[in-house]
Recover the amino acids of this structure.
């Protein structure tokens, strides 16, 4: 029999807030975190907007000497881990340290360090490359630094599965606890890839919105006039615990993690499967894993990137999975407010799904003005909605055709 896994702590750093409380408040009010890009000069760029984290100072969390050894995505992960650990009330001592693990994923790692140090190499020679370049940039160092910080000596891992990475980290952590390899996992995703090379690369693919004259209205998932995603950054982490471990210490429980699915489109390097097979199968796998019927799901936090293809084919997949219930179920894309956090998207959206369950309050899809005939579901348009729900599903899909789905249940004794 599988061990039950529950959520006891949440941590966020996002374009709309530097904590769970501030982010959730902005999300429910329908506030956009998209603005003109400030990290570099965009004069020669076709894309001039992004969803940047604002007013974040890593020195509020990390000593200056240590902060220099970390990329920004690690700074975000450390800050979110501190909040999640405080929220959980968990104290890691020698008695439990070997049963506490970290699993924090990223799509890219520290793109800033790669660009900066490459420039040094070309302009000043190899002797000028920082000795901290590698540990500041590689994907698994978010998990590594959080492990060191909180003395978590259990499983320590990371995935680099593009925009599904954060969701894979949480799902894989659930499996680790289910099989008894850990009692607690600090898990989720972190990303900071709003750089000249990254923005230029996504823009060259024509994946990004060019609605530069209306930044806050640029991300418009499932809407007729959507023209691409808005790149974002931040971190979203959760504390997962084995149920009896959490009960013994009197932990507050937000929700239960009950289902996880993984599939591949095996179709194209960037474009979604036109038949929506991969997305359909990943949701079905999460439902089957939990032993839950489609009609029991009350809310779906969609991948919903605001690209023409993703939103069309994700809608098709939802219809395939849920049948007639697809038209009764609330679906929203919080990327309309946060932008697309790439490898961190699954982490923050898992937190949003958990909070929707916990509070009985569904975040909206903002900027929904003109319906698209191909996207005809209930996208919770423009305003949050009170709705007691028992199950919430969160979708994350990535380049390479990698898919993840997480199913959360309202906790009951």
């Amino acid at each position: 029999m599988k061990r039950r896994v529950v959520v006891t702590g949440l941590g966020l750093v996002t374009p709309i807030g530097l904590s769970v409380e501030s982010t959730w408040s902005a999300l429910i009010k329908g506030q956009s975190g998209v603005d003109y890009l400030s990290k570099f000069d965009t004069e020669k760029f076709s894309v001039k907007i992004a969803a940047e984290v604002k007013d974040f100072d890593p020195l509020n969390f990390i000593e200056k000497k240590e902060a220099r050894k970390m990329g920004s995505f690690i700074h975000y992960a450390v800050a979110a881990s501190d909040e999640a650990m405080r929220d959980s009330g968990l104290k890691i001592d020698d008695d439990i340290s070997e049963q506490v693990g970290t699993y924090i994923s990223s799509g890219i790692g520290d793109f800033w360090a790669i660009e900066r140090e490459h420039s040094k190499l070309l302009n000043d020679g190899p002797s000028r490359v920082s000795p901290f370049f590698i540990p500041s940039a590689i994907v698994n160092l978010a998990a590594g630094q959080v492990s060191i910080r909180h003395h978590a000596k259990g499983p320590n891992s990371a995935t680099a599965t593009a925009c599904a990475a954060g969701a894979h980290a949480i799902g894989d952590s659930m499996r680790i606890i289910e099989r008894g390899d850990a009692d607690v996992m600090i898990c989720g995703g972190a990303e900071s890839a709003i750089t000249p090379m990254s923005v230029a690369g996504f823009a060259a693919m024509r994946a990004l919105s060019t609605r530069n004259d209306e930044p806050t209205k640029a991300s418009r998932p499932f809407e007729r006039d959507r023209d691409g995603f808005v790149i974002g950054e931040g971190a979203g982490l959760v504390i997962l615990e084995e149920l009896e471990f959490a009960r013994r210490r009197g932990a507050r429980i937000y929700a239960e993690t009950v289902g996880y699915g993984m599939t591949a489109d095996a179709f194209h390097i960037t474009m979604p499967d036109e038949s929506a097979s991969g997305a359909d199968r990943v949701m079905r796998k999460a439902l089957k894993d939990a032993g839950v019927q489609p009609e029991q799901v009350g809310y779906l936090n969609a991948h919903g990137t605001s690209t023409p293809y993703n939103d069309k084919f994700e809608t098709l997949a939802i219809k395939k999975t849920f049948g007639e219930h697809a038209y009764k179920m609330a679906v929203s894309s919080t990327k309309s407010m946060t932008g697309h956090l790439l490898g961190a998207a699954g982490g923050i959206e898992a937190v949003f799904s958990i909070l929707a369950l916990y509070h009985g309050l569904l975040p909206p899809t903002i900027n929904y003005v003109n319906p698209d005939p191909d996207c005809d579901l209930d996208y919770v348009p423009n305003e949050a909605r009170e709705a007691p729900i028992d199950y919430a599903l969160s979708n994350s899909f990535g380049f390479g055709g990698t898919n993840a789905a997480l199913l959360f249940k309202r906790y009951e004794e």
Observations:
- The radius of gyration is 20 Å.
- The chain has a mean pLDDT of 97.
- The chain is about 35% helix and 20% strand.
